[in-house]
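In response to reviewer comment 3 from the previous cycle, which asked for concrete evidence that the modeling workflow produces usable outputs, we include below a single protein chain processed end to end. The sequence was submitted unchanged, and the resulting structure tokens are shown without manual editing.
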Amino acid sequence: MTQEQYQQKLANLRLSWFHHVQEVTHNVAKTCRYYGIARKTYYFWWSRYQEYGFEGVKDRSRKPLHSPRATKTEIIEKVIYLRQHYYFGPSKIQMYLLRYHDIRITPSAIYRILKRLQMNRLPANQRYRPLKERFKRYEKPISGHNIQIDVKFLDPIPGLTPKKFYQYTAIDDCTRIRILKIYNRYNQKNSIEFVDYVLAKLPFSVHSIQTDNGTEFGPQFHWHILDKGIEHRYIKPRTPRLNGKVERSHRIDEEEFYQMLQGIVIIDDSKLFNEKLREWENFYNFQRPHGSLSGQTPFERLQEKLKELSLTEVTL
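The workflow returned the following structure tokens.
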């Protein structure tokens, strides 16, 4: 029963008191004894009915006229915007409000706002689907200790472009710093070019690289990495979870980058596509707070690790 239905039922009950007096007992005291109410209660609602009609026998809102501690409207609007456009949860919304608007609000308060607006449940295609098996999360303690590389297949847009694009992604296991680039094809030649691009762009040395067993990471790619003095590891077949960080980052790309293009279609020019992707890469590395990093950006995590390393060297 909704609140409105409850109020309607309560109002009809109070109307029945008045009808009972007029049509049955013709006596207020007898009607009050019949319904188990005080005469003061009867006359209170009777006077309200006489003055306001049917609306008068409904309960009035007990909401205070002034609520100085209530969440401001502009904050609620920002919460709604982040929920509708990015599908963020309460914790991620809190991080964004604190970082970009200097607004301090608890995740529980954000959840109450979402629940009041019936936005606490995400659309079915955006909800988290739990795996049957749970795996322990891990993280390398040193930046560059392990780099995960994978390829994201970008499907052609029906009716607009028959062309496929392939997003190469490299992510540092420790800091979550990512390097992205779009190619028209995925093969060992492009994989070698991409890994050289990654090594030149990362602000730290790389000790090992981890990939799946795809043909684009075949023998030529493998020996190219070993010639650079870097270890190359293949994950076990049919275990994409072992490349979990890069796989999860691809889901973020889908939800927060490709979905946000909103009609900006780049048909045949991968250079234009890469320009958009570089903007997203910079935002991801330098501005986007990460839940897995306790609200830090990847660059802030790198600075923290470098500071810890320098303190360790001083202590030694």
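The longest strand covers residues 147-154. We consider this sufficient to address the reviewer's concern, and the full set will be provided in the supplementary archive.
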